[in-house]
Amino acid sequence: MRVALISDLHANEVALRAVFRHIQAVGVDLTICLGDVATLGPHPREVLQLLQAERCPCILGNHDEFLLDRGLIDSYTEAPIVKSAVDWCRDQLSEQDLDYLRTFRTTLDIELDPQTLLMLFHGSPRSHMENLLSTTPTEELEVMLGQQRSTVMAGGHTHLQMLRQHRGTLLVNPGSVGMPFREFAFGQAPIVLPHAEYAVVEAKAGHVAVTLHRVALDRAELRRATAATSHPLRDPLLAHYS
Question: Does pLDDT of 187 surpass 90?
Answer without folding.
Answer: no
